[in-house]
TrEMBL record, chain A:
GO terms for cellular component: plasma membrane. One of its GO terms (molecular function) is transmembrane transporter activity. It is a multi-pass membrane protein. Residues 20-254 form the MacB-like periplasmic core domain. The keyword Transmembrane helix applies. It holds the Pfam family FtsX. Its main location: membrane. Keywords: Cell membrane, Membrane, Transmembrane, Transmembrane helix. It is found in: Cell membrane. This is ABC transporter permease. Residues 298-429 form the ABC3 transporter permease C-terminal domain.
Automatic annotation (TrEMBL), chain B:
PROSITE patterns: ABC_TRANSPORTER_1, ABC_TRANSPORTER_2. The keyword RNA-binding does not apply. PANTHER family: CELL DIVISION ATP-BINDING PROTEIN FTSE, LIPOPROTEIN-RELEASING SYSTEM ATP-BINDING PROTEIN LOLD. Residues 5-220 form the ABC transporter domain. This is ABC transporter ATP-binding protein. It comes from Parabacteroides acidifaciens. Keywords: ATP-binding, Nucleotide-binding, Translocase, Transport. One of its GO terms (molecular function) is transmembrane transporter activity. It holds the Pfam family ABC_tran. Belongs to the ABC transporter superfamily. Macrolide exporter (TC 3.A.1.122) family. One of its GO terms (cellular component) is membrane protein complex. InterPro entries: AAA+_ATPase (IPR003593), ABC_transporter-like_ATP-bd (IPR003439), ABC_transporter-like_CS (IPR017871), MacB-like_ATP-bd (IPR017911), P-loop_NTPase (IPR027417).
Length: 435, 221
């Protein structure tokens, strides 16, 4: 039956070329707008290298140090002492990556310049301090060498991992393991070179990664209760299972309580761990995640409703031409539901090429506006800390994005074809035959 | 086979009321070839539509093959039409975006019949109406007579007991009209199908088993 519907739809497409072309273009344009949002959502939330565990990630980013006797408080990120005595003690996670918060770096470290001894070029770079677990949590592609080790991290040895393009800029090659580089005039030894990281991976994006234990600006605060507790680090926690977040929350609360018993100058509070998607989606509209999803769904529906109304007009006039056919089908025993499903299937055939066109157009739009759509925020764009945004085929061409496109086509089809179809199949048979 | 009792059809608008059929009592026997005649607007087609369950009467009953159809819902009517009735229309009503074979398969599409069986049945009836060589053609590529033969093939593919033909030769020249009439007679005599035909043509009516005439919505003889 469906084979015949599709054959007829194909024949109708050939017979009504102008209608089909307008319909496909209209669908394509309508779908592309929504697909831009879907593609951006996918790139932001799916497991994309090196952030291959986004579905199991959660974050502790805010730590407040409240001084005794209400003498003041410090709201900041995780401090090195807090990381060492609280975050590294957690048993629930599979691993805890602690890294400097990119947005805070310009204020605490200032501009960072790198130079290879004997070379003139000293480009400004984006630096990230991190621990050894960082390399376990995130899947970097090492072109050369390897990450710094736990021993390197514990000892605060000056080791650096560079991106491929930085390595080429500094040395004009990537085989630079063991070579010395100067980071703001401090000597570091290159331990490895990784493939460039797109700015869409905002947790990890940088040009160079070093053990944060080698950064005086952080480690000098270790002994200080206040700035040792609240500083510029973030804890990126890899859970064994996404559902462990409740367990982690309880364990973290216990650890913070224990940590507070070691403090004399004040007490620490920190935010509950927030999952990757919750953080990403929740920060979008500064709403509860459920509310955000609800709001986004309404916006998407409105995005679709306007073109759906236009397509519905086209469908209505097209259905008017087919009313005698509907009369014949009803005369020979077609129930209304069967006719509705036929019209739905036929429209879907028109909708799908539109969907493909819309998806391709949305790729073009995402590519052209990638800095606007995929940057870590206006602040990151202004400060240049977001890294360069480049897109890989894997980010765009994957079954999840195709599924989004198909669902959008399905919804658009439902919105645009069902009312005209219902009106057409409701027409009395004798009237339909004489139409 | 078909029994109409006290049948009445009134079309009502806000201003006027038009009586299309009034007190029609008619029985069509199994295997009969009945022709309905009368001037334009006398209610012939309305009657045929009511017999074909395409329209409902204002009052009275329509009994077909022992089943009173008046209280059936849309879905039951659709199933009944699909299984018991075949239609041949004056303007053929073939679907131009389907080829001949797909057009003929149409009634079987709404039964639980496999694609293979549908195809075989459609090919068999097209053979019967002498159009097996036109199966892949589209209606726009056929002559009027061929189109009506396709329409007849479509009407009989589901093996209905009753065929309702509304001026089946009205859009055909005399030669093609004669061919179509010959085919209908063949279906009546050889297959024993009951045929009810609306016609303006006296000659064609004379060839049928019985003729009823209508005038202003009433059966006059």
């Amino acid at each position: 039956m469906y084979k015949q519907y599709l054959r007829q739809a194909w024949q109708l497409m050939k017979q009504n070329r102008f209608f089909s072309a307008v319909y496909i273009i209209g669908t394509g344009l309508a779908i592309s707008m929504v697909m831009v949002m879907a593609v951006v959502y996918h790139i932001r939330t799916a497991n994309i290298a090196p952030e291959v565990n986004r579905d199991r990630m959660c974050y502790v980013t805010n730590v407040s140090f409240n001084m005794n006797d209400d003498k003041g408080h410090l709201n900041s990120c995780v401090g090195p002492r807090f990381a060492k005595e609280v975050m590294y003690n957690l048993k629930t996670p599979e691993a805890v990556a602690v890294a400097t918060m990119t947005q805070m770096m310009p204020f605490t470290v200032g501009d960072v310049f790198m130079q290879a001894p004997g070379h003139d070029e000293a480009p400004k770079v984006s630096l990230m301090g991190c621990n050894d677990q960082f390399w376990r949590v995130y899947a970097f592609t090492f072109e050369e060498g390897k990450p710094f080790t736990e021993a390197d991290f514990q000892s605060g040895l000056p080791r650096a991992v560079l991106t491929e393009s930085l390595s080429r800029k500094l040395f004009r090659k990537t085989e630079v393991t063991g070579q010395t580089v100067l980071i703001n005039d401090v000597k570091y030894i290159v331990s490895g070179v990784v493939a460039d990281v797109s700015g869409v991976a905002s947790d990890v994006c940088a040009d160079v990664w070093i053990p944060y234990t080698s950064m005086a600006v952080i480690m000098n605060k270790m002994a200080d209760e206040k700035e040792g507790s609240a500083n510029i680090l973030v804890a990126n926690i890899l859970l064994r299972d996404a559902d462990d977040i409740g367990l982690l929350k309880d364990e973290l609360a216990q650890e913070v309580k224990r940590y507070n018993t070691t403090l004399t100058e004040g007490q620490v509070t920190c935010n509950d761990p927030v999952s990757y998607v919750d953080q990403m989606v929740g920060s979008l509209l500064r709403m509860d995640v459920k509310q955000t999803y609800m709001t986004l769904s309404i916006v998407l529906l409105l995005f679709l409703l306007v073109p759906a109304l236009n397509l519905s007009g086209l469908n209505t006039s097209h259905m008017q031409d087919r009313i005698p056919e509907i009369g014949v089908r009803k005369a020979f025993g077609a129930p209304r539901g069967t006719l509705m499903s036929q019209i739905f299937v036929e429209n879907m055939l028109l909708m799908l090429p539109g969907g493909v066109a819309g998806l391709l157009f949305s790729y073009v739009l995402v590519f052209l506006f990638r800095n606007l759509l995929l940057s870590s925020g206006v602040f990151a764009m202004q400060m240049g800390t977001g890294g360069s945004i480049f897109l890989s085929a894997g980010m765009l061409l994957n079954w999840e994005v195709f599924l989004y496109a198909f669902v959008v086509c399905l919804v658009l089809n439902l919105l645009s074809s069902m009312v005209p179809a219902w009106r057409a199949v409701k027409v009395n048979i004798t009237e339909a035959l004489n139409a | 086979m078909i029994t109409l009792t006290n049948l009445e059809k009134i079309y009502r608008t806000k201003e006027i009321e038009t009586v299309a059929l009034e007190n029609v009592n008619l029985t069509v026997n199994k295997g009969e070839f009945l022709s309905i005649m009368g001037p334009s607007g006398c209610g012939k087609s309305t009657l045929l539509n009511i017999i074909g369950l395409l329209d409902s009467p204002t009052s009275g009953s329509v009994e077909i093959a022992g089943t009173n159809t008046v209280n059936m819902n849309d879905k039951q009517l659709a199933t009944f039409r699909n299984q018991k009735l075949g239609f041949v229309f004056q303007s053929f009503h073939l679907i131009n975006s389907l080829n001949v074979l797909d057009n003929v398969e149409l009634p079987l599409l709404y039964r639980k019949v496999s694609a293979k069986e549908r195809r075989a049945a459609a090919e068999a009836v097209l053979e019967k109406v002498g159009l097996s060589h036109r199966m892949r053609h589209f209606p726009t590529q056929l002559s009027g007579g061929q189109c009506q033969r396709v329409a007849i093939a479509r009407a009989i593919v589901g093996n209905p007991a009753i065929i309702l033909a509304d001026e089946p030769t009205g859009n055909l020249d005399s030669k093609m009209g004669a061919e179509v009439m010959e085919l209908l007679h063949k279906l009546n005599k050889e297959d024993g199908r009951t045929i009810v035909m609306v016609t303006h043509n006296d000659e064609q009516a004379k060839q049928t088993s019985r003729t009823v005439r209508f005038f202003d919505g009433r059966q006059v003889m």
